[in-house]
Amino acid sequence: MSLIIYLVGFAFVIGGVAWALVVAGVSTVYVLITAVILVGIAILTGVTRTRTRD
Predict the structure, then answer these.
(1) How much is the pTM?
(2) How confident is the prediction along the chain (54 residues), in pLDDT tens digits per residue?
(3) Structural domain boundaries in the chain
C-alpha cells in the first residue's frame, strides 16, 4: 500500500515537471523522454524504500 502512495506522489511530481516543460516551450519528445526517465526513477526508488527486509 505504501508503494502505491509513493508512486501517486511521484506522479504528481512528474506531472508538474511535464507541465513546466510544456509551458517553457520544450519539444514534446523531450517532455516524454523526461517523463519516462522519471517514471523509471520512481519505480526504482519506490521499490527500494518500501520493500520489507527479509
Answers:
(1) 0.83
(2) 788 888 899 999 999 999 999 999 999 999 999 999 999 999 999 888 887 766
(3) 2-50
